[in-house]
Amino acid sequence: MRLARPTRSRSFGLLHIADEARILAPDAPGAAGTHHTDRDGGETVGFSRETLDRVLAQTVLVVPCKDEELRVIRCVVAAIPAACVVILVSNCGRGGARDEYLQQVAMLQAVGGGRRQAMAIHQKDAAAAAAFQTCGMSALLDPADGRIRSGKGEGMLLAVALAAVFRPERRYIGFVDADNLHGAAVREYCRAFAAGFAMSAGAEHCMVRLRWGSKPKLRDGRYEPVAEGRCSRIVNAWLDRLLDPPAARARGGEACDRPRLVTTGNAGEHALTMALAVKLRLAAGYAVEPFHFVDVLERGHLAGLAAGPTAAPLQTAVHVVQIRTRSPHVHRPTDGEHIRRMWAAGLGSIYHCLGPYQAAAMPGTGAGGLTIADFRRDMHVFAAENGGLDGATGELPRPRVYPALEDADLGVFGDVLQAAWATGSLAAFGSGSNGALRGE
Ligand code: GDP
Predict the structure, then answer these.
(1) Is the CB of 179 under 6 A from ligand 1?
(2) What molecular function terms (GO) are annotated for this protein (predicted)?
(3) How far apart, in whole angstroms, are the C-alpha atoms of residue 206 and residue 222?
(4) Could you tell me whether strands 85-90 and 118-122 are parallel, antiparallel, or unpaired per DSSP bridges?
(5) Higher model confidence: residue 254 or residue 17?
(6) What contacts 40, CB < 8 A, 6 or more positions away?
(7) Residue of the CA atom closest to atom 4 of ligand 1
(8) Which of 6, 333, 347, 373 has the greatest count of CB atoms below 10 A from its CB?
(9) What is the C-alpha separation between 141 and 145, in angstroms, rounded?
(10) What is the Cα–Cα distance from 78 to 183, expressed in whole angstroms?
């Protein structure tokens, strides 16, 4: 794989963000980590198939799904490189003669021929809820029924816990949405994750976030390429304004005279080193992806500037690698209300996380300039003008933020699920999964 290297980066304490690397040729042969200067003077870097395969063999790939068609999920799972362990976390409806979840489990086994390493769990599984309750993560449970709350972030957290406990030898965890209608793109996403980790040269805390080549929209029976989705356009603009303030020339960062630093605020397709995944606090629902940035900003930078951090400061640098793929992202169309809820959740996660630091200068700027209070005020105005405020509170929605998994007793989490193995709580296939989840 050959990529154009990022051209600039910014650091805020322990948070290091590079702008987009672009995939030039997904399958170009290249010796490990070879660097070149191309004809335009841009730097490129190449990775051999063997290098990427080595990373993929250390990766768990998670597919969170809710109410997706079986044939679409199958297409996604089948496109994931065989070396990855797949974890399907489903929050689909259950019951009836054609139980959707059981069909998904059967599909997972059939796609791998029973040999590829794969697991499936239902988000509302009683043993999974008991495991979180016992290990100290009861915040994840819905008091109404004692089960894990619905939401994408909650499903992802469950997957990280499963990977940490049952596949501890795997160094990386990636996420690919189940509604990818274009299987070839999924293959490129997985290889892009591997290239991102290879670029970060063994960093303990690394996050690789993908931006798609384009997002085709069906208009009047024709596909038109759109560079940025409706939700991403808003969330990226505000994250960019937070982390690269001079780039913002107008409210919301609409007008910029140079490429954005942050282009992956809402990246459903992203991957983390496991060391980082268990340290991050994850936000509920659709706030999960944008909140990655603010959690690291708070715990790796702001916590040292002002009183009132809400979580323990990080101790190790976090590298954010952003990669633009070549493949377009084709997914199920979503309505305007869904988009509005998604960007409001994303902005809410930024707004509320920054609350304790109102008096601080904007990250990376000196005293006397804009403060975080100014930034929050502008964000509030934007949300008010665009229907993003919660009707009951008059505020941007405040996301539920879960404690980092490293604070939970993951050994106990594993014991509870292992004990429930016989009841079929967790389905596991492939070598090392036959009757014993812990890979004996
Ligand atoms: P969009 O594609 O970014 O508009 O967002 P979607 O609503 O399609 O959700 C992104 C991914 O998260 C899809 O694969 C969904 O099936 C999945 N997802 C959404 N809600 C949940 C949930 O409550 N639990 C799980 N496990 N997955 C979810």
Answers:
(1) yes
(2) mannosyl-3-phosphoglycerate synthase activity
(3) 39
(4) parallel
(5) 17
(6) none
(7) 334
(8) 347
(9) 8
(10) 8
